[in-house]
Design a protein that fits this description.
Low-confidence stretches: none
Number of domains: 1
Number of helices: 7
Number of strands: 0
Helix content: 55-70%
Largest sheet: none
Distance between the termini: 49 Å
CATH architecture: Alpha Horseshoe
CATH class: Mainly Alpha
CATH topology: Serine Threonine Protein Phosphatase 5, Tetratricopeptide repeat
Mean pLDDT: 82
Radius of gyration: 18 Å
């Protein structure tokens, strides 16, 4: 990190994480997003959804790196946070988008696969509609 820059600046780490992700340097990106999360103040100007967005970024990066355990940990943390967050009415659509992204995680995918398999046993033609 260049001298004169605060190494605990969460915004800087989030930006560096986004840059590393754009360059397909997933390990570097994960490290930067983790530093951003670790250096977040209790209240951030970006709002209460910002930490959840960082966790979802980490979740996606962990999946890209085939680290399902770390991905699950980030998704669980995001789920716990989204259930406790209070947002103004103007931020409600963004909160609902984040909640939907969290709920569409691997647990939902696993449930869909189980339903699909069950339907295939009962009525194989149902698979086409699924």
């Amino acid at each position: 990190m260049p001298s004169g820059i605060d190494s605990k600046n969460y915004r800087l780490h989030a930006i560096l994480g986004a840059i590393a992700e754009a360059d397909d340097r997933y390990a570097d990106s994960s490290a930067e997003y983790s530093l951003a999360l670790n250096n977040l103040p209790a209240q951030v100007p970006e709002g209460p959804l910002y930490p959840i967005e960082l966790r979802l970024n980490l979740y996606e990066l962990d999946l890209r790196q085939d680290d399902e355990a770390a991905a699950k940990q980030q998704l669980d943390a995001a789920f716990a946070a989204i259930n406790q967050v209070t947002v103004p009415t103007s931020s409600r659509p963004e909160m609902l988008r984040l909640r939907a992204a969290i709920e569409a995680g691997p647990a939902t995918r696993t449930r869909r696969i189980k339903i699909c398999r069950k339907r295939c046993l009962w009525r194989p033609r149902m698979l086409i509609r699924f």
